[in-house]
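Human:
Care to share another protein and its fold?

Assistant:
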Amino acid sequence: MKYNLRNLEKNVFTIFKKIGCNENDAKTVTEILLSAELRGIPSHGIIRIKDYLLLWAGNRIKTQPNIRIVHSTPTTAVVDGDSGFGMVVAKKAMEIAIEKSQQNFTGMVAVKNSNHYGIAGYYSMMALKHDMIGISMTNGNPLVIPTNSIDRFLGTNPIAVAIPANKEPPFVADFATTPIARGKLELAEKKGEKVEFGLVQDKHGNPSQDPSILKHGGGILPLGGDITHGGHKGFCLSSIVDIFSSVLSGASFGPFVPPQVAYLPLNQNAPGNGLGHFFTAMRIDAFQPAKDFKNYMDLWIQTFKKARPIEGIDMITIPGEPEREFEKKLSKEGITVNDKVLEELENTLEKLSIKSPF
C-alpha cells in the first residue's frame, strides 16, 4: 500500500507516542525510520516497528531512558543508553561527538546499553552541516558467520562515512559489512523470492538461496563470501566495527550482543552491556580550510564521475547518489509499504492492545 509521506509520518509518530515516548523521542524514531524508507532502504524502515514494539513489551527497550555520559575527555566520551531506542541514543551520542569536535576539532563517542539504531548513514550525515566528516558504526545481534565457520558470531555491522563537498552533493557511503542485511532477507521471504548464492549458508556450511535460513540455524556470510572472493576481508571489517562499537565502550561483543527480536531470549551470563555504537565527527579545518577541502572534494567527485562505465551502464555512481534519487522520488510519489509488513504490524498492535493508526 502506498502512503503519502506526511500521513505515514503521522501514523508512525502516533505509535511511538502511544507506548510512552515523549514528543521529541517519538519524532526522532519516526524521522530515522522514514529516512530509511525514503533512501530506498526499507529493510530498516517500517518493517522494524514490529520488532521494536515486541522488545518494548518485553521490557527490553525503555521509552524514557536516562541517557548519560559515563566517561569523558575533551575529545571522547562513553555514553550509556539505558536500553533506550537505538535511534534516540545514537542521535544524542552523535550530537555529543559534534559538540566535542566544535570545541576540540575531533569528537569520538562510544556507546553501550543501546538497541538497533536504524540506518547508519543518518548519524554520519548529521556532521555535514557543520563542515565536518561524520563516521557512524554499530554492532548487531549475531547472524553472521566468521570465515570458514558454521557459528553465528557477528552482526551485519554497518559503517557509514559522510564527507561534505561544495557544489557537488556530499559523499555518503553507508554499507553493511555483509552482502545482505537481515531485513532484506525478511523482505525477500515475504515476497516469496530466493536470494543469490554467496549471501547465506545453511547450518552445515553449505551455500543456500533460502531467505528464511536464519530460522533454520544458518547464517549470513561476511562481505565477499568465501575466502576466494575476499570473505576474510569482510570478516576483518565486521570485526573492526564490533571492537570499536563494543570493546571500547563495554557493550556486549560478537556472539553476546543481545538479540534485537523479542522471540530470542537474552543471555543472562553475557559479558558487556547491551548493543554498542561508535561515532566520530572531524572538523575539516583541522586539516585545511573547509572551503579549500570542499572544492577539492568537488574535483574528486567530478573526476570519478568521468570513469568510463561498462556496457549497459549509463554512468558511474558515487556513494550516496542512489539514496538521494530515491529520496527525491519517494518524497513526491509516496512510500509503498509491503502488505505483509503492514499486516504483521497491525497484528502486533492488536496483540498489544494498541489501536492501529493505519
Q: What stands out?
A: The chain has a mean pLDDT of 96. The radius of gyration is 20 Å.
